[in-house]
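Budget justification, computational time. The allocation requested in the original proposal was used primarily to generate structure tokens for proteins on the priority list. As evidence of use, we reproduce two of the resulting records. The first is shown immediately below.
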Amino acid sequence: MHLSRHTRADAPKDLVSRMLRSPDTLLRFSMADWDMLVRQARSAGLLARIHNVLAQHNMIEVIPAEARWHFDSAATLANKQQLAVRWEVEQIRTALAGLDCPLVVLKGAAYVTANLPAASGRLFNDIDILVPRSLLNQAEAALMLAGWHTSGLSPYDERYYRRWMHEIPPMQHLHRATVIDVHHAILPDTARYFPDPQKLLNRIVPAGDDMPGVYVFSAEDRILHSATHLFHDGELPHGLRDLTDLDLLLRHEAAAPHFWPRLVARADKLQLGRSLYYALRYTQYFLDTPVPEKVWDDLRPVTPHSALLKLMDSIFSRALAPAHASCDDAFSSVARQAAYVRAHWLRMPAHLLIPHLLHKAFISPYLDNSTAKPA
């Protein structure tokens, strides 16, 4: 039921996926190939991760001197960001100490604080946290007192976030310019599938002994959240980076006893089976992530029918490739637009979606809106 590696059309174009699948291919790269790899990896946000992969394979010396500094500087930035994330999470924990709930960090910050392999070479735009909806106002007030404030949003986007989204508008620190996304769920209330946030909170685990008071989702929930974020998000400039997160998370947990049955069962309980299916399909397609055949059988109830699957393959094989002109074909732009519309269709019913898309297409471009993260 999964895509065959022999059906990949990206072989001559997507050098990033190619080298992540098989780092030895770099030994046959010309200087033109290295130049293109740097360009594609930068657009995908994966320069630092490639550096770490090559370091793990003792292949750093393979990088030509002319290209080496690109990878070295990205790796240095990633290492500095990880230190900064740890420090920033501690500031958030202090700011929210008065709330009657644990600090739960999500996505990249969770990988860093829990010392997971998915933190390797990870670059950050913001820090995501989850608080119960009942404490959302208190959390926002506490963060404002500590220096974080929402800004740069149009009145429309402000209303959109607070009325329909699963998070409040992004909050940026007045002095450090760090950004926090405060979530109360992992999908909007209006989404076709709505995992109960309390079920996620019931299974949180400590991030680690070196980060007291900080919690992360359980192993299965981390994977399912990453899959959900990727396949319900209409903006995919770093889709391949997010796929590599999933690949590392899956490979890390796969050795645990009964991991795969637990993952499939948890996806079913949270209404995220279809997202898991797509996550496994496209991590295997792009990165050769090992998935047991039994898992595909277990996911058969949520497998799309053949016509829909063919359409999704045509979309995501393009939309998840590096967002660089060298990876594009005549249908890439259409595929990205289709992914954008699909994500909004999953998050909003038609009577909300159509006015929203019309507003974003015909009104928002003419407004003076400098938001760092539009709705």
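The second record produced under the same allocation is shown here.
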Amino acid sequence: MQSRVRPMTPDDLVKLRSVGRPAVSPDGRRVVFELKRADAAANRNFTQLMIVNADGSGLRSLTAGKFNYTRPAWSPDGRSLAFISDREKGQCLFVMRMDGGEALRMTEPDGVVHDFAWSPDSRRLAYTWQPMTEREKLERDGKSDEVARRPQFKHITRLFHKLDGAGWWNGLYTHVWVCNADGSSRRQLTRGDHDHSEPRWSPDGALISFLSNRTPNADLNSEHLDVYVVRPGGGGLKQVKTVNGSCRGHAWSPDGRWIAYVGTCFPRGKGWQHLERIWLLPARGGKPKELTREIDNLCRHMTLGDVVGSGFEVCPVIWSGDSQRVFFLVSEAGATRLYSRSVSKRDLRCEAGGNVNICFAQRTAGDGPIAITMGTITNPGDIHVVEPATSAGPRQPRR
């Protein structure tokens, strides 16, 4: 008997759940992922962390309550999970032992952590942190009377003073920090009137790379980003990428020779004329090499919708354990698929295709499985596992 079809109602929208960023354990046996839900009474969305075994068993929540928990990342030794949460006023970095125990806060609550990365030895974390203004702290703490007594105006000093999804710029810049995995020994590594993003460790742990636009009048060259490196103990910065162009989703090769990224190379102000593809940058500095010129599409997720919250985030490039192959997303024909390519020869391969929307792809171990968030036009998305060595295509954990 055929089921009756009825129109969608607002109540149906509230019931929708969407899966976000996945994080597969180094041994490939478990996947942690974001699950966003709507709360009609609070008129808000909340994101919690779930965990499931790779065979689909043991699905359970890691976090609960009316807070947001995002960007899960396993430590390389598989013993801990780091994530960002607003459960203690600010948007802080937390670390949770996966054998039990309460999550520990790593960063000060009077600021916002945007991104982070584990060191290869699992002993430290690099992160980007933007401090709050005094007014933001008062608003956060519900001190509306004190806020009302303060001047009610905004002094605009830069072109990009307000962005969708971010709101008003608070006048303070985002810098790179490093701390031990217990939250001790916090150290600020960058300074100045520049924003910084995507802190990433070199494979030997000797350097931390990050992105920044330090060109004159940077807001007039907003698509441009360079790669810089700094030692975890501090010191001078070294600029690695020096050509004009965009750069996001950067990742070190396991052998430490290359930094792959999603981007373009163009004269100042001409970025709109170029497609974002995969580039290889010598880690010691030099001219980047375009790797995927044969792809006449964007090498990033651009199949946008109103349910899955991937926005305009660029998924980092994924390396094979032998540093000979890269994995990346490609948006084409109304879909976003997972591709791979050798760094030395033209052998483009579709690892997960079809009429699908792959929002995120992540791998923790060098040649372990790749966890992806993949949906279709009728399914907001679910977690799948891709094992490139088997060429079997994506596999959804059984339930």
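A brief technical remark on that second record: The first helix runs from residue 10 to 15.
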